[in-house]
Amino acid sequence: MNGNLLLPIAAGLLAASLWGGWMPVTRIGVTQSLNPGDIVFLRFMTATIIATPWLWWYGCRPGPNLPLWRIGILTIGSGIGYVLFAAFGFLLAPASFGAVIPSTMMAFSFLIAALLLNQKFTRKSLGSVAIILTGVCIFIFESTKIEANYVFGIFFFILSGFVFACYNVALKVWKLNPFHAVSIVSLYSFLSFAPFYLLFFEINIFSAPIREVTFQILYQGIIVSFISLVLFSFASIRLGSARASLLAVWMPVSGVLLSVAFLGESLTSTLIIALGLMIIGILTGIAPLQKKEAGRDSM
Predict the structure, then answer these.
(1) Domain membership flag for residue 8
(2) At what angle do helices 80-92 and 178-200 cross, to 10 degrees?
(3) Distances (CA, A) of 19 to 15, 243, 247
(4) What is the signed CA dihedral for 260, 264, 265, 269, rounded to 10 degrees?
(5) pTM, rounded to two decimals
(6) How many CB atoms lie within 10 A of CB 299?
(7) How far apart are CA 174 and CA 161, in angstroms?
(8) Domain-embedded: residue 271
(9) In Å, what is the CA distance from 196 to each residue of 155, 191, 203, 298?
């Protein structure tokens, strides 16, 4: 292996591992002293503070290139919608079930691009979607045998994957700087959610143990929102976006492994098969992108 590739590969795998760790970390938060609203508030309050330099540099007001409706899609897609749906999912189902999120995100990204952008399905992309959805369906049916209410958690995970797919497609179509997009999402998520949180959620951040609140601030607001993005952006620049996205397959794997290791969760053999199908589906969908990008690089 080229030595120059070791650092970006390591950065991409570390980013995927940190994103995977978000699954058990969020599950810990919502099953101890905090609720989903607390998690969302802490994440975007912290992220907004960190994003201040980018907001100052790029601007944060709606304009011709970034009208309010686009900001709304971005904010729901990777901000309050994505995090809140996922947090409720982790409240209702084991953290390892969060592997459904990146899998459905990939499948919905293909579907949205085909329906709204008139992009044609290839056989491999159709096969990828079919394999992912098969894995998700097995996950749903098997989970009901363990605990009937788990299906509601999986439903929220699917919603989370759907709204992030909307963000993913929008980011590519509108060609936004990723740091600007994340900063905008952080600010408007905080501004739109804070009043709702203060009025309708039980506020636990002042009564919860300080170590729990601090841990969630560090992981949700700093590690997941910015450090992981910087690491993955570095990998994407050095390796190419398609090759870097291959490393993101490690996210659901690391999420499941960390959930088993730190939360004592277990998976049945059927759920492991379902997880394997979802990972195969992601790999199948990414492979054509790699070939396409490799073709451009050789020109």
Answers:
(1) no
(2) 60
(3) 6, 18, 12
(4) 70
(5) 0.84
(6) 4
(7) 20
(8) yes
(9) 23, 9, 11, 52
Q: Is residue 220 part of a domain?
A: yes
Q: Say if CB 265 and CB 221 are below 8 A apart.
A: no
The residue type of 34 is L
**Dist CA 279 CA 286 (whole Å):** 11
Residue type, 15: A
- Asked if 216 contacts 34 with a C-beta cutoff of 8 angstroms, the reply is yes
285 to each of 62, 188, 242, 290, 291, how far by Cα in Å?
Answer: 34, 32, 10, 10, 11
- Kindly state the helix (H) or strand (E) to which residue 221 belongs, with its residue range: none
Residue 120 DSSP one-character state: P
Which of 114, 93, 112 is closest to 104 using CA atoms? 112
Residue (of 161, 126, 53, 21) closest to 29 by Cα position: 21
Q: Tell me how many domains the chain contains.
A: 1
Token representation of residue 199: 């009025």
CA nearest to 237, candidates 36, 1, 4: 4
Residues making up the chain, counted from first to last: 299
Output the CA torsion 216→222→226→232 (10° steps). -70
Cα torsion through 46, 52, 53, 58, rounded to 10: 130
Domain that holds residue 271: 15-297
Q: Three-state DSSP class for 160?
A: helix
In this structure, is residue 5 part of a structural domain? no
Asked if 167 contacts 85 with a C-beta cutoff of 8 angstroms, the reply is no
Closest C-alpha among 163, 166, 160, 165 to residue 90: 160
The series of mean pLDDT values per 10 residues for the chain, 299 residues long, is: 73 90 93 94 93 84 83 91 94 91 85 78 80 89 88 94 88 78 89 94 95 95 85 75 68 88 89 88 65 48
